[in-house]
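Marked as duplicate of an earlier ticket. Keeping the data here for the record.
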Amino acid sequence: MTGATGARRNSDRMPHEEWDLLCDAVAERLRRSVEKPAATSVRAAVNGCAQDLKVLQAALTLERGYLRRIETELNETRAELAASHANERDAQYMAQHDSLTALPNRSQFRRRLDDALSTATTRPPTLAVLFLDLDDFKPINDIHGHDTGDELLRIVAQRLRRTIRGGDIVCRLGGDEFACLLSKPMGHAQLGRLARQLFEAISAPLQVGGIEIRVWPSIGIALCPTDGDTAITLLRRADAAMYRAKRGQLGYAFFDGQSDVVPSEAGGLH
């Protein structure tokens, strides 16, 4: 039978085999004391049991310490896993969103547009892509500084989010360029009204650092399936319509295959 000193030397945990043997030994002592009730036998059994109880107490102390260490390690592991998952979520979010405006970025918009085209319940799908560019944004940066320009872009992003319908998507493509994906069917008249609402929302005066600034957007609209049925085609044709709106100071324009010059495959949008 293992003694108390032997139990103390096991600094981590008493093996199950030794624990079972110890319990069996205590039970055997008690059984013998009942079978041989002589005073000396009982006294010897009691003394032996007292020694065994000390060993049991020592073993239980070791067991509790071991379980506490296991609990601590489990808690630390849980915390590390939670931190790892949080870091992974943050990394995924940053990879899919624009750091300045928190809008979906260009790559995320392309994925969402590809998904809308591939999973639509109607064939061909009916949706619209709007391409927005801010007129004369560069002079604002040059005159008032990039911090003012960044704050202006954040305000424009908020106004776009508030104006588009629930379920539609707005993103920042980069610089002062934004795009919207309207996945619910809309006619030309409805799209025209929404484009005017976007124009009015963005061009309303805004305050940045005590300075009143106004900026006007140019908006190009391309429809699926009329103007294309792939993400890159729709974006390029909405971009082409936007440039015609900018040149003519129209506010917004629908893609016109007769008038608009579409960026080539080698340049422009990616």
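See parent ticket for discussion. The beta strands are 127-135, 169-174, 177-182, 206-208, 211-213, 216-224, 252-254.
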